[in-house]
Amino acid sequence: MGVLRRLTWASMDHEARNALCDRGLSAIFDPNLRARIGAIIEDVRVNGDDAVCRALRTFDHVDIAPDQLRATADEIAAARVDDDVDAAIEDAIAHLRAFNEQFVERHGHWSFVSEPGLTVGEKVTPVSSAGLFVPSGKASYPSVAYQLGVPATVAGVPEIALVVPPMPDGSGRIDPAVLAVCRKLGIEQVYRVNGPAGVAALGFGTASIPKVRMVVGPGSSPVACAQVEMQRYGTATMMILGPTESLVIADDSADPAWLAADLLNEAEHGTDSAVLLVTPSSTLADAVDRELVVQLDQLPAERAEAARSALGVNGGCVFVDDLEMATDVANRWAPEHLQVAVDSRDEASVVDRIVNAGEVLIGQHTLFSAGNFVIGCPASLPTGGFAHVSSGITADTFLKRTAVARADAAALARMTPTILAMSRHEGFPAHANAARIRLS
């Protein structure tokens, strides 16, 4: 029995296409979920640390006092991982640092002479504080810690707090690999919290956890919902970093075994993940399906169950007439991760047509896992179709731009008729007088 749900784009009506493209959003904005998350947020707003500890007991089965929420300096210093993991973290941080330093260098302060006597431009400065949410629970993600932490530190954010649920063994411990990342990046404020309560604690501030201006980080539907809800209290968040998703555009030139492996790469994350293969070739789809059956048998039961959901219930194979239609589907779906696995002669045209994707990985040697762990491009990316309007987390996420201008007397005299005309039209006499008084 095949793994892939099979759909044909040309024969799908408007409702069917919308259903495919609206993955994840219904869960994040489900009224019952919003009510439950709203109750946690209100509890944290009113009761602070006690509410954070209550959420840990309720959802993570970890019973600690407020003074145990923060990881101690000794705990961070003592965190150790296997040598190969330590080397991998160093490698990833180096790539991420290089990417983000290049970004800052290319997008720093700028100015130009708009007209004689008038100079305009921008100065770029970091946000004053940021909270980083690193998911945990069923698995631990030190890769998310460096994917968030490196851009924030390269941007120069002066106050960074990182929150992470404790390991699922009930000990209350934070994954040593996450602590190792924090040590390497100089992040000293690290807290063990339940996800939604941690997001709320960062937004409101508690006796133990600092209030920050911005909270970012991927997570489950409850975590994404908490970030959306906290916007109502003035906390800046990214829209939306929810359950993972990926899309592969492939033709008959692609290796089916490699394709199956890459589809499973993202599909194993969870039953709420969504993965699509978009292809004009039924022959390729059949070959990939056979490989999926073989490779699924090699996965642990929990990962295999997640993959079957991501490729069957939530995703699948979408048949298209040609590669142009494939890019239309990709742009409509707007995936978090997109891989192009087509004949090299068609790569450029396919990539040129893609405008809505968190990342584009070109060729079958550019793996999703390479993007997740080491390439250096952002891997915390918009989900749920928000790649239509937003981007992944880079140093830019943590930077803000302030417009700067300088005019001399001659330039002001040249602009004054415009100021007077607009002031009169909009009914602001003091606006006009501020310019007119300088004419005397």
Protein described:
This protein is α/β, with parallel strands linked by helices. It folds into 3 domains: 6-24 and 243-376, Rossmann fold (3-Layer(aba) Sandwich), CATH 3.40.50; 28-237, Rossmann fold, CATH 3.40.50.1980; 408-436, no CATH class. Helix content is 47%, strand content 16%. The protein has 18 helices and 14 strands. Helix 3 packs across helix 4, helix 3 crosses helix 10 and helix 11 crosses helix 12 (282-296). The longest helix has 24 residues, at 83-106.
Briefly summarize what is shown:
The protein is α/β, with parallel strands linked by helices.
Query: What number is the mean pLDDT?
Result: 94
State the secondary-structure class.
alpha/beta
Radius of gyration: 25 Å
**Architecture per CATH nomenclature, i.e. the level-2 architecture of the largest domain:** 3-Layer(aba) Sandwich
Tertiary shape:
globular
User: Strand sequence of the main sheet, in spatial order?
Assistant: 1-11-10-9-12-13
Instruction: Determine the CATH topology of the largest domain.
Output: Rossmann fold
Q: How far apart are the termini?
A: 87 Å
- Tell me the number of helical segments per DSSP (H or I, 4 or more residues long): 18
Helix content: 40-55%
**Which runs of at least 5 residues are low in confidence (pLDDT < 50)?**
none
**What do we call the CATH homologous superfamily of the largest domain?**
Nitrogenase molybdenum iron protein domain
How does the major sheet shape up? 6 strands, parallel
Counted beta strands: 14
Assigned CATH class of the largest domain: Alpha Beta
* β-strand amount: 15-25%
How many structurally independent domains?
Answer: 3
